[in-house]
Amino acid sequence: MSSLPLNSEPTSLPSAPGERSDTRSEPRTSSARAGSPVAPTSGQLAFQLPSELPQLSIAPEWKDQQRLWGHSFHPMCSYLASFPASLVHAFIARYTRPGDVVLDPFSGRGTTPLQACAEGRIGAGNDLNPFAHILTAAKVDPPTKADIKTRLVALRVAWAATAGEWNEIADRVAADPGATELMVPGPGSRPIGGSMAARPDSSVPAEVALAFHPRTLAQLLYLRAGLDPDDRTDRFILAALTGILHGKSASYLSAVMPNTFSMAPRYVREFVSRTSFHSPERDTFALLEDKVRRLYRQPVPAARGIALLGDARDSGVRFRESLRARGLPERARLVVTSPPYLRVVKYGYYNWMRLWLLGYDASAIDDLLDDAHHRDAYLVFMREVLRGLRTALADDAVVALVIGDVEMDRGRPANGGIGLAEAVWELAAAPEGYRLAGIALDDVAAGRKMTKLWGEEAGQATKLDRILVLSTSEAGRRRAIYGASLPIDWSWPPRTPRAL
Ligand SMILES: C[S@@+](CC[C@H](N)C(=O)[O-])C[C@H]1O[C@@H](n2cnc3c(N)ncnc32)[C@H](O)[C@@H]1O
Description:
Layout: H1 85-95, E1 101-104, H2 111-118, E2 122-127, H3 130-140, H4 145-175, E3 183-184, E4 202-203, H5 206-211, H6 214-226, H7 232-244, H8 265-275, H9 284-295, E5 306-309, H10 315-325, E6 332-337, H11 352-358, H12 362-368, H13 375-389, E7 393-404, E8 408-409, E9 412-413, H14 420-429, E10 435-443, H15 450-453, H16 456-461, E11 464-471, H17 474-484
The structure holds S-adenosylmethionine.
């Protein structure tokens, strides 16, 4: 849903050039100028004709809220095509009560489950991307402020004792960027004050070596080798680290690329050599402490949520199992989700540096995810997802699917991308027995869209997204229609106890 407002750095940015020979996942824009970085543009365009399906008149008030509306954990790390927490609130406030379960089978950076927890609901998210899973888990199952402060102090103390060794390693890496024979301790291979399954050593990609000052790189290598993603506190620290890894201000560890997504490795190399780029020295611990302070501006949500790692197609069964295991209601009253679109975002490739930090291979993740389907395969995929979800839905559940139109498929007009939400209804949801409450339209201000990041033209092109609102019964359909016009409270943090 590239036309939804982004929650980070909503500016026009140079775009990530494609580099891999895998053209399957190589976006291109027809408007890219020769010599300039090629934009990963896949514009999503307004469906200019009125939809033939009934409209649901939910006023898109979420667009009138401040950019960072919602819990202070939301902006932990930017994530392409995330929707704003205010959009999730528009559904949570209308269709759930405290204690109800709210699901998102494609949770991305965890917007739906976190906002649900922050409003006293049980938020449960699932994603097949391990980076998304870490972000979601960090947000819905966070450590206390005291725990994280204690751990940060311990990490600094342990760093002081070993800094010389790590600085030496980083100096060797910086002296010969990309040397494959130069091995450094791999992610999780040198636990700091705990025990983890050791992982093998690995070499550092040249673009990583070029992106950071050697002193910063030393601290990063130390934390990467020492933090345990299965530990609640360490996972939160790792997730916060991904959020400050690169960006264009002094609060980021490298200024080599924007914070929104990873520029292509080849672009990084060319940029470094063209501009004689040397990253300024940044103290990882100080920036991490600042980041954590910002994240903990608001109290930790009282309700703990659930983060699952797996395929959305069988998420229904897994949601139920994990809710049951915790003694919670097994069926959800609300789903708010945005599935991946047709070949729009490559979640691995555009996050390759964050994935390096976490110890994952970006191209393996893109091979795994369903973010590269053409229309027919996409509709089969969506049908399977909706079928699998039913088992985890209460009889009167409301299901909101945010699906925009996809105009361009990597530089060429997309085949069947316009009216995608309507097609999902007709060919995926209706055959699985869902009822249609209606389609809510969301016209988006051109300056606040994700496609804007990828070039002016793409940004200008997008005007509408669609929110397909479904249910599994007539009672649910009526509930969805009746609730659409209810006024809701937009104060945040809330003045009433709704979020406690
Ligand atoms: C549009 S994003 C969701 C963003 C989310 N609403 C947020 O606010 O952060 C779609 C997500 O689908 C995930 N995904 C792709 N294929 C999947 C699959 N088969 N099962 C589960 N998740 C998948 C991607 O990793 C991505 O995080």
